[in-house]
Every structure is written in C-alpha cells, then in structure tokens.
Design a protein that fits this description.
8-stranded mixed sheet; disordered N terminus; 13 helices; alpha/beta; single chain; Rossmann fold
C-alpha cells in the first residue's frame, strides 16, 4: 500500500504538459509526434545531448523556463504567450524529456545545472532569469549555487527542495521509485493524478490526460520513464535545503495554498505554507507569494498571477 501511495504521488508530477489532443495510437516517437505551440529548435550542448527548446520574444532580460518532473516545455505556454511581449522567453526540454535526447544519465541536479550552463554558452547568453517549476525549481537553485555568474534572478514556482527528508525517507523513495512502476501507470491513475495537480481542474487541462496516455505508445517511452526515475533519485540525493542561505540572487517564490504535492502528504503531513516559509526565511533576498485557491501546477491554473508577479519582479 505504501509503495502505491508513493508512486501515486510521484506520477502526479508527470502530467504537467500542454499539447493539443491527439489520436492515442499516433504517437510513435516523442520528438516527431509531440505537438508544441511554438517552433522547436535544437542545441547540441555536448556530444551526447541535443536540447530541444523554444525561443520567443525579445527584450532587455532573458527568462529561461525549466519544467518539472515528467513534464516538458509546453507547460509554460500560458506564461510565454504573455511574457514574450516584454522579454526573451526560452523554455527547454530537459535531457530525457519531451523532444530532447533520451540517453541514460545520472539525473543529478548538478547534471541538469551543468547542461543548462552549457546551453546558455551555446546561445551566447551571459546571464538570465531562471524560472523553475517543482523539480525545475530545485534545478534552478542548484544552477544559482553552481553557476552564480549565469543567474540574474530566480523565480521558483511550487519548487521542490524546501522540504526536508530523513535518510530513511530518501531510501524509501529510491526503493519504491522503479522503471516498472512509472511505465505501468494505468489510465485511471493518470486521470486521477491529473486532477490532484490542481485546486480546481481547468477545462482546458483535459488534454494533458490524452498526451500522457499517448506517450505510452512512443518508442522512446522506456527511456523517458528511466529518466523520470533517475530524476527522483537526483532530487533526494542532492538536497538544497541546507544551502539556501548561499543563494545570493534575488528570488521570487510562489506556492499555491492548496498544493497537494508539497509537502508530501504521507511522509510529512502539514500545510504548504509551512514548507514555503522555510525556504523564504533561509534565502537571504526573497519574496514569498502564496496564491489562494491554487494547486501545484500554479503556472497553468493561475497564469495571470504568475505573469504579473514576474513582470514586477524583473522590473
């Protein structure tokens, strides 16, 4: 039962994507068959990885958007569509996700941060604002710690990394998070998990179910599942909670007051605010915004709030 609970909680995060409805049998390969709202470009960041990204708008500031666990770059489409009028907006598929290369890798947060640093070098961008959702928030914090010269500011949207886990809890995550468990998530579980991401499931979020089900037919789905597993290991193996006081950049933190994923309701029962305030108090220069009637997938459920806060913060 406990294994089912953990897999249920983790698989929720695998649904944060925004692409149109498709025939479920048509998706043979994620790179070719996933439909994105903007032109997709590719960056060869090293010999093994080709990073898929979209690059929209222009302005004095560049915002780099990093998706969460199991997600991909279209998760930010409601934000890019508005913010591209004032900023250069770049959203990426992390290695192993979406249209990016799916080769085995460590899943470590430092691995992702190093890839993002190489990505900026490829685009000849000296410094950017990093906006990360959930796991992407933890990656963004590691980016600020490992490559501070490349990070202007941080926008952390329902970020992972503020919650403390004991060594026993970390071992538990490693034991129950398996390739088979991710791969065999049922259609019923997918539908239930989607709703769990939101305080009030928007009508225009229904296509997320279709995409997640369709992905199971893709020939690169096993690689995707493997990278999801490795990402979970990476989050628990490289915590940032004891390094938050070393983040020197200005930080904007946003949480939905009704987040069902943070804190983990079974391992660390409590209120989301209790976790959010830990990060806010530890980071020297931060602003915390709690969004009422909002769940974990804040950038899709309350995009107008996030977009407004980002504009004020970057200014």
């Amino acid at each position: 039962m406990m294994k089912k609970i953990v897999l249920f909680m983790i698989s929720i995060a695998m649904l944060a994507a925004c692409t149109p409805y498709k025939n479920l049998q048509d998706m043979k390969n994620m790179r070719t068959d996933l439909k994105y709202p903007y032109e997709v470009k590719y960056a060869p960041v090293n010999d093994d990885i080709e990073l898929a990204y979209v690059d929209e708008g222009e302005g004095e500031h560049t915002i780099v958007f990093i998706h969460g666990l199991g997600s991909y770059l279209p998760a930010w489409k409601k934000n890019i569509e508005v913010l591209k009028n004032d900023y250069r907006c770049i959203a990426v598929d992390l290695p192993g996700y979406g249209k990016s290369t799916k080769n085995p890798h460590s899943g470590m947060m430092t691995f992702y941060a190093d890839v993002m640093a190489q990505f900026l070098d490829y685009l000849e961008i000296d410094k950017a604002v990093f906006a990360g959702h959930s796991m992407g928030g933890q990656i963004s914090m590691v980016m600020a710690l490992e490559h501070p010269e490349k990070v202007e500011k941080l926008v952390l949207v329902s970020p992972a990394g503020f919650e403390r886990f004991t060594e026993g809890q970390k071992d538990w995550f490693r034991d129950v998070m398996t390739l088979k468990g991710v791969k065999l998530t049922t259609v019923d579980a997918i539908e239930t998990n989607l709703a769990y991401n939101f305080y009030n499931l928007p009508d225009d979020a229904q296509f997320m179910i279709t995409d997640r089900i369709a992905m199971r037919h893709a020939d690169d789905f096993d690689h995707y599942c493997y990278d999801v597993v490795r990402s979970v290991h990476g989050m628990v193996d490289q915590p940032v909670i004891d390094k938050l006081d070393q983040i020197k950049q200005p930080v904007l933190i946003l949480f939905g007051e009704n987040d069902n994923l943070i804190p983990n309701r079974y391992l660390n029962p409590g209120k989301t605010y209790d976790v959010a305030i830990v990060g806010d108090e530890k980071i020297p220069d931060s602003k915390l915004v709690m969004v009422p009637k909002c769940g974990h997938f804040l950038q899709f459920e309350k995009p107008e709030v996030l977009n407004s806060e980002i504009k004020a913060f970057v200014r």
